[in-house]
Amino acid sequence: MTAPLLEIADLTVAYGGAPAVDRVSFTVSEGDCVALLGANGAGKSSLLRAIVGLAPLTGRIALAGTRIDRQRVEARIRAGIGYVPEGRRVFAGLSVRDNLAAAIAAPAAERTRRIDETYALFPQLAARDRDAAWQLSGGQQQMLAIGRALVQRPKLMLLDEPSLGLAPALAFNLFETLAGIAASGTTLLLAEQNVRLAASLASHALILHRGRIAARYSGDALRA
Ligand code: ATP
Does 2 have pLDDT greater than 90? Predict the structure, then answer.
């Protein structure tokens, strides 16, 4: 049997006081879309940050059978983890194109190809090619933040509350695009507070409560 794409075992994240993530274990198989649900402060962000290497942790994290929990962030990204942080951090002063280009470690022709692919997925970004990122709407900035992770061709994409601060119609559109990304073969692990949106996409859901997994649902059970 092949290893799951992501394997988390006994993961704890503590910043000093009570753990933000407390002995959490789960796996994500290739092609899954796993939603991490929970209230503010439940530990969703800390869990995603630990996976990409931005939070102190104990426990084990393996990607496609190889342990990554002691690797630096850059190595984890090279290994196939894409990370879209909460609050759509893009380079505000750089153009849309340059934001994407800066995320691609490849020769110019390949860079252009990947940017074109991103524009095919997000036509609204193509229309703003030369505009600075700060000029974009919140929804477009979120697309750009997702595009910056996608151009690195991740096997597993971590998204931290992509719908946060977006008007309902925009959030809905964004989730349709995420469904397309999932359908094209990228595995997703998505922190979300909006259960309805998460349910539209999820193959599985984990409910986090005070750093622990309080319940696990299939996507169908969540939708029901
Ligand atoms: P949110 O929706 O606010 O992002 P969350 O479910 O993602 O919530 P976390 O941000 O992971 O939750 O926070 C979990 C707990 O860890 C909270 O009690 C929070 O205050 C604490 N925490 C998060 N980051 C830090 C940090 N850098 N230093 C100290 N405590 C932190």
Answer: no
